[in-house]
Automatic annotation (TrEMBL):
<comment type="similarity">
    <text>Belongs to the NAD(P)H dehydrogenase (quinone) family.</text>
</comment>
<dbReference type="InterPro" id="IPR003680">
    <property type="entry name" value="Flavodoxin_fold"/>
</dbReference>
<feature type="domain" description="Flavodoxin-like fold">
    <location>
        <begin position="11"/>
        <end position="197"/>
    </location>
</feature>
<dbReference type="InterPro" id="IPR029039">
    <property type="entry name" value="Flavoprotein-like_sf"/>
</dbReference>
<dbReference type="InterPro" id="IPR051545">
    <property type="entry name" value="NAD(P)H_dehydrogenase_qn"/>
</dbReference>
<dbReference type="GO" id="GO:0005829">
    <property type="term" value="C:cytosol"/>
</dbReference>
<keyword id="KW-0560">Oxidoreductase</keyword>
<dbReference type="Pfam" id="PF02525">
    <property type="entry name" value="Flavodoxin_2"/>
</dbReference>
<protein>
    <submittedName>
        <fullName>NAD(P)H-dependent oxidoreductase</fullName>
    </submittedName>
</protein>
<dbReference type="GO" id="GO:0003955">
    <property type="term" value="F:NAD(P)H dehydrogenase (quinone) activity"/>
</dbReference>
Amino acid sequence: MTQPRDPGTIRHLVVVGHPRIDSFNHAIARAYREEVEAQHQQVEIDDLYARNFDPLLRRDELPVPGFKPRPDVAGSLAQIEGADMIVLIYPIWFGMPPAIIKGYVDRVLGADYSPEELKADLPNPVLRGKRLTIFSTSAATRPWLEERGQWLALKQAFDTYLTDAFGLRDCHHVHFDAIVPGLDARFVAEHLEVVRQTARERATVVRYGDLPPRLLRRPDF
């Protein structure tokens, strides 16, 4: 039987891709952090907009022999290397994650990872075995997104594809729809309780390993 890990050594990297600090996306990050820290695990928040992260993949960042990451990417890779759980928090704009999140995938998650390695099903050595949690939001309702095929496309591109391509251990995605200005305080509180419940579950999974489905809340997907 696998022994539980010391919670004090478990680290979560929370990557936020929303420009407004007063947004619901940032409220998700704060709630997740508070709950995970209550489980005595460590959390580091990477606010991409706050540090002016450049989403553009430059020519010298393409995977070639002798690849050397730029300083900002090297710092992000160090964060990932020390993390057990990677958490992405972003809004859906025009049916897609914001450019800053796609740029994080291109420049950081895909750093020095070639198409040849992808085709050969070789896992990304930096990401292999790590767990991924995604919190996304949209102003549109989920049925509206589903009717237009955007929901399935997002799931395949950012959940299934990233998990399989990079060799991640698993992915858990929670989506909040109808997130618009002037949300009712009770509505916000209910959603943030879902975030806290998810944080507790993910913290438990990292500490104890895979748990039977009956011990976990039904996932969104």
